[in-house]
User: Fold Heme ABC transporter ATP-binding protein CcmA from Pseudidiomarina aquimaris.
Amino acid sequence: MSTLLDVKQLASQRAGRTLFADLSFSLQAGAVLHIEGENGAGKSTLLRSLVGLVELQAGTIQFFPSEHGLAQEWRQHTLFMGHKSAVKAELTALENVALQAQLSGLTQVDAWQLLETVGLLGLEDLPAGQLSAGQQRRIALTRLWYSQAPLWILDEPFTALDTRGIDLLQQRFAQHIEAGGAIILTSHQALTWQPEQLQRLRIQGGEL
Assistant:
């Protein structure tokens, strides 16, 4: 399998406290990297640093085939989702899905089909602000059904999902991995991938 990401000697601090240092790893196509650690350990900071949203004190990040920071070419190869659903409360579920696709540069996405896929058909005309946290999360996660990015970087993707939603998301992850994609995620959810597919990296007290 080809390498999608190579990380060397990353270091990050917050308020003078080291979150992590000398962090190095690579990620192959068809693999999942589970970032573990207690709350405040720096898991979200690591994910955000990988996509340029947090400044690092040291280290290099290379996405293949593009290099991090060069005309933001990594955006063509990476999908990042933070731990917040980030839907617009005043827009309907259908409008939110269509807007997400538009912001991703897509105009031919079937928003109705996506809502059906994530179990929200029938709620398409309701403002997202009237939906539950789990339903809002499903709206945000529809991006995973049309993304062409081989590398997904996801911060707590299972947040607020019920058992059915978790199962649906696990199935989508499995499809992505089977197709040669890769995933980096934080999660308190038990992961079901085969040992050869799953890597673990634990951040604890500034150590790995």
In short: The helical segments are 43-50, 93-103, 111-117, 133-141, 163-178.
